[in-house]
Amino acid sequence: MTTSSNQKHHVTAPVDKVSLGKKILYGSGSFADMTFQWTLIAFALPIFNQELGFSPIIIGLVLGITRIWDGVTDPIMGSISDNARTRWGRRRPFIGAGAILSSIFFIIIWMVPTGISDWQFFAYFLVTSLLFYTSFTIFSVPLYALGYEMSSDYHERTKMMGVRIFANSFNGVILFPWFLWFMKRPIWGGDTTLGIRMVGLGIGLLMLVFALIPALTLREKKRKYVEKQEHVSILKSLKFTFSSKPYLYLIIAFFAILFSYNTIATAYSYPLRYFVCGGNEDLFSLWFGRIEGFHHVATLLALWPINVLSKKFGKRNIALMGPIFMILGALSNLVCYVPNMPWLIFIPRGLSAIGLSCIFVLIPSMIADVVDHDELKTGTRREGMFGAVHFWVIKIALALGLVATGILVEATGFKVELGINQPVGTIKNIILLLAILPAIGAAFALYLIPRYSLTEKKMYEIREVLEKRRGIG
């Protein structure tokens, strides 16, 4: 350590800094992670319900089932990764295998057979989704853990999580939001099914390249104290993880925000398409892409201030800005859906993007600190398990939110076959839900985050004790 822990702000030692080149290589995996994680979630309803006409309840049910499955596979993968001892490291072999399998099954999901019933679609979507998300777990859980352990420094960890979100959001500007627009291009001859299949194939192959880069290029640091630690069973590791109070505060707050936001957030496409754009499909696909792209531009613009402010005022204090912006974004939905004025939706999406940036950058950075706190208590390094549970919380919040979305959309009386001629009050009720539900979850997170106790000063004190224990000078 270069400074004593009682200084106001620590200066990152050269040995703790991650080079720009390594950050880019790691970011490549996060670029692919964005497509794998969010494309199906964001486009399941617009494509499978609005374009192909399958039941929104069935779509939400499948995504909910896959999240329950993740509740089994994520901790298993975290434990396997933590306990692995290979010549290539604990993480890289799984990242590589998962990258290949995820790309294959991502492509297959979009090859939906034509002329099938809702329940035949249910079977196809369920099987292919389970295969895809199992593969994605093999890829993503070790990738997450690798990001945690690339630096031991309090502030450099925030930068690493910023790299992850930068790569996600850069994808979100140039690729991810245009999935629907690409499949609507005249090159497919007006054949929606062909457009879905070909765009899915092209993006799946492209993501294979990006996902393999960190597995093939990044070398894991050799840590003798980790290699010598005894294997920890899954149940024991889970017990250790859930006994960490700082960690519980973080993941419960994270779940509250993400679940409440996603119970209705993806349904903004309904008032955008059928109310703001008047049912014009080309106009809708264009503005859907623009709005999703703007969401990620706002995320990118927020990353530098988050890093600077968290260093000056502390991670916990700036993390509190996340739910505040989420509440402002949710409430602004009440006044931003106006016919022929789709640009107004930039306001709620932008405010929410800033809030989500705070949460997605700082909570993982704080979890990386929790790993040190946990090692002090248990004597083991278990980035894989902490990352697995956190990643599972993300996926379960998203999927349960989508299950709720399907149910809520049905409850409003929305019927896709009616187009712009929806029952009176249907679109207004969807907009009302967009305002209320995310604000409730964000308010609960505001109550929880102040209870996280691992300050910068405390973390450097913990690191000093750990380094003495490990015999590091």
Note down, in words, how this protein is organized.
This protein is mostly helical and 473 residues long. The protein has one domain: MFS general substrate transporter like domains (Growth Hormone, Chain: A). It has helices at residues 20-51, 56-83, 92-109, 118-149, 154-174, 179-183, 192-217, 224-227, 234-242, 245-262, 269-276, 281-313, 315-319, 321-332, 346-378, 383-411, 426-448, 456-470. Mean pLDDT is 87; it is low at 1-7.
What's the helix and strand layout?
Elements: H1 20-51, H2 56-83, H3 92-109, H4 118-149, H5 154-174, H6 179-183, H7 192-217, H8 224-227, H9 234-242, H10 245-262, H11 269-276, H12 281-313, H13 315-319, H14 321-332, H15 346-378, H16 383-411, H17 426-448, H18 456-470
Helix pairs in contact: 1-2, 1-4, 1-5, 1-7, 2-4, 2-16, 3-4, 3-7, 4-16, 5-12, 5-15, 10-15, 10-16, 10-17, 11-17, 12-15, 14-15, 14-17, 15-16, 15-18
Written as H for each helix and E for each strand, in order along the chain, the element string is HHHHHHHHHHHHHHHHHH
Instruction: Tell the overall outline.
Output: globular
The total domain count is 1
Query: Beta fraction of the residues?
Result: under 5%
